Amino acid sequence: MTRRAFLGAAGVAAAAAAAPRSSMGVAATSFMTGWRPRDMFAFLERCAALGAGGVQTALSATDTDSLRRLRRRIEGAGMYLEVMASLPQDDAAAFARIAAAAGEAGARCLRAACLGGRRYESFATLEDWRAFVRQAQAAVRSAVQVCEQRRLPLALENHKDWTAEELLALLREYSSEYLGVCLDTGNNIALLDEPMEVVLALAPYAVSTHVKDMGVAPDRDGFLLSEVVLGEGALDLRAMLSAIRARRPETRFTLEMITRNPLSVPCLTDAYWATFPDRNGRRLARTLRWVAARQSASLPRLDGLDAESVRLLEERNVARCLAYARDALGLRA
């Protein structure tokens, strides 16, 4: 890193640290383009310097000394911890070890996702999707058993996989007090769900959150979808957070600000519809009208930026989001 870049990054962190802290935390997935945090302590310190109220991160170490040191640091800073974990596959042993480590570190919950990618890109046929559903149901069942034993809530993210109705059905199937959602405020737009309806449907189950604002624009194959700095997009964040708070007042608000090029949602192509037998033209038309009415004048792009510039932009975006949460959304520590 050049001296100029170092001073620029230091200035962002110093400005954030000097300001009153927000109660909003930061998910590690907010740093996945310019800087990928691989050490939980380094990520914690970066977020503390930016004025965050907590962190949602994977555990980079699970030995007792490291977990206790992490817990002391978080509690001493008045922050919170949520642990990212992968759902069990062939057996639950690895998941059980992470759950035990998360409990030792004082985590509020485990956040997991059934699908790492996007439904309309990951599965070519309805049969492929249904096979995934069976595997996911088995994984959730195994994870819930572990979380019930540990008395540690599991937060399943709506991760461009389940429609709101499908995720609700999954939650009701298990009906466990230790199974809820990591409620992402923007992901389900890509599945043609209206974002406020998603929040209202899932808020009673919100163990955790990924708060994001979304920019949208029409595109030849459907529309473009992009995370943008809070307050600059199409979502009514005040109403969304109020709805979550009214139904789950103990839930913490965690930022997921992903700095990247816009995603294409190709809802006007045949391939997109292969795994959506219950979606219809009315829902498509409503979504395209919603996009047209709220389209951004421009969406952020990283084209032409060098790695150093991307790192600085990513950190600046997170800092700006935390400032907005603190000052405009009232999320003060």
Structure, explained:
The protein is of the alpha/beta class. 44% of the residues lie in helices and 15% in strands. The protein has eleven helices and eleven strands. The strands form two sheets. Strands 7-6-5-4-3-2-1-10 form an eight-stranded parallel beta sheet, covered by helices on one side. Strands 8-9-11 form a three-stranded antiparallel beta sheet, covered by helices on one side. Helix 1 (3-18) runs parallel beside helix 11 (307-327) and helix 4 (93-104) crosses helix 6 (126-150). The radius of gyration is 19 Å and the shape is globular.
Tell how many strands the DSSP assignment holds. 11
The best one-word shape is globular
Return the structural class. Answer: alpha/beta
CATH class: Alpha Beta
- Under CATH, the topology is which? TIM Barrel
Q: How many alpha or pi helices?
A: 11
Strand content: 5-15%
Q: Could you state the CATH homologous superfamily? A: Divalent-metal-dependent TIM barrel enzymes
Provide the number of structural domains.
1
Which value, in Å, is the CA radius of gyration?
A: 19 Å
Layout of helices and strands, plus pairs?
Layout: H1 3-18, E1 25-27, H2 40-49, E2 54-57, H3 64-76, E3 80-84, H4 93-104, E4 110-112, H5 119-122, H6 126-150, E5 154-157, H7 164-174, E6 179-184, H8 195-202, E7 206-210, E8 213-219, E9 222-228, H9 237-247, E10 254-255, E11 263-265, H10 281-294, H11 307-327
Parallel strand pairs: 1-2, 1-10, 2-3, 3-4, 4-5, 5-6, 6-7
Antiparallel strand pairs: 8-9, 9-11
Task: Summarize this entry quickly.
By secondary structure, the protein is α/β, with parallel strands linked by helices.
